[in-house]
Amino acid sequence: MLWLFLQGYAIIEIQAANIDKALFRISKAGIELIGVSRVSYTRLQATVRRREFMRLQQVVSGSGSVAVHTIGGTWKLLHTMKRHLVLLAGLLTVAVLMLYLSNCCLYIEVSGNERISEYAIREVAKENGIQLYRLRKREALKQIETALWEAFPELSYAYAAYHGAGLRIDVREKYQAPEIASAEPSAVYAARDGVVTQITVHSGKAMVQAGDRVQKGDLLIAGTYMLGERCITTHAAGTVTGQITAVDSALLTEEQISCLRPTGNTAQGYCMRIGRREYVLQGEDPFSLSLSEQETVARMGRNGPLSLEIVKIVWQEAEYAYSAQKKNAALLELQEEAYASLRRELDETADIYSIEIFEEQTAEGLKVVCTLRAQTELGMQGPVNVIQTETSERIYKEE
Q1: How confident is the model at residue 384 (pLDDT cuts 50, 70, 90)?
Q2: What is the pLDDT of residues 192-244, one digit of tens each?
């Protein structure tokens, strides 16, 4: 048994239509089976040495099959070590990869920039030797700092250093003096229709208050106004915030909110495909609305330069059926289009805070009205207003 353990063995099951003939062939090939026990007329169990197992499979392959129940001895020991070696090799590969990545630059982080774009700073770093997922280059840090000073004269501070798994670039920009406001006389007018929610006047005279509804061109802050008996003319300045409303509508057809559902009626036909061309052999789609299924029933020359296929086509008559999923997708697309359209008209500081959907079924289809409300700046600079009398003013409106 010790010799059998050292050689390695397998407990197998042999199955053959004529088991006695199979045993004769095994014996004739000089293969020794140990502990043979018959399970049925066509199956038997036995133990075979590892070095004879491959020959046994070749002998039995013509008339039966060999199934391994278990392996033992040094065979099992080597198999177990092989699995552990694969695991160890995998762990070693991961460790080497982690060690390599720990010495690489995986990302570039930029902080302190305001007017200079982060993309421009990243490009300067890449042009001076920094490559993502490559080994770090300490000598490139000073080059990056020098290149930043040369590329952006508006910088007052630049520092580059490796931090964790990435490169961190800290910059500071020089103080930029604010632009001096124009002293030319002017007034502030409504740039669009809306309802005033807040008004702050820096110079001039407020002509509206919170809650007032204004139209495009209405005077919001006057640059010329009466103070007692004196006529004051100045550069009007201030902030007028208001609520605006945008309405967008669309007609959703039956196809947009419905899906095709089979009615149960079917028809079938055949076509022949030669290369990319298709020829009808029999039948055609008799339905105005249908779903189709195709099945290849014959094929010639699959791997050749010219293939031929006979395809069976089954048409199923269909009808439109309401689909809540398709309707919700269509409504979502309408909301996104309306939001994008309004966003293009407003500045970046505008806040779109409300979207309402109204649905109405009509003979043509489902009419959908999308109402959006936003908070934005209403005022725009324009020519100074002119006073006609002491109590009335002519309001400039932009055509």
Answers
A1: confident
A2: 899 999 999 988 999 999 999 999 999 999 989 888 888 888 888 888 999 99
Minimal CA–CA distance to 71: which of 48, 37, 54?
48
Q: Which residues of 230-266 are buried (b: 16+ CB within 10 A; e: fewer)?
A: eebbbbbbbebbbbbebebebebeeebbbebeeeeee
Backbone angles phi, psi at 85, to 5 degrees: -65, -40
Question: What is each CA distance from 377 to 344, 354, 356, 372, in whole angstroms?
Answer: 14, 17, 22, 16
* CA geometry: angle 102, 108, 110, nearest 5 deg: 140
Pure H helices in the chain? 2-7, 19-28, 50-60, 74-102, 118-127, 140-151, 254-257, 324-345
Give the pLDDT confidence of 80-133 residue by residue, as tens digits: 777 677 777 777 888 888 888 888 888 899 998 888 888 899 899 989 888 888
- Could you tell me the domains of the chain? 2-76 (3.30.2130.10), 108-173 (3.10.20.310), 182-253+323-399 (no CATH), 260-320 (no CATH)
Between CA 112 and CA 173 the distance in angstroms is: 8
pLDDT tens digit sequence for 254-272? 788 888 889 999 999 999 8
Q: What are phi and psi of 115, to 5 degrees?
A: -90, -30
- Shortest CA distance to 105 belongs to which of 134, 145, 81? 134
Regarding predicted confidence, which is higher, 304 or 374?
Answer: 374
Q: How far apart are CA 124 and CA 110, in angstroms?
A: 12
Among 194, 191, 320, 301, residue whose Cα is nearest residue 262? 320
The tokens describing 176, both together, are: 């930029």
Distance of CA 75 to the CA centre of its chain: 50
Give residues with Cβ within 8 angstroms of 180, minimum separation 6. Answer: none
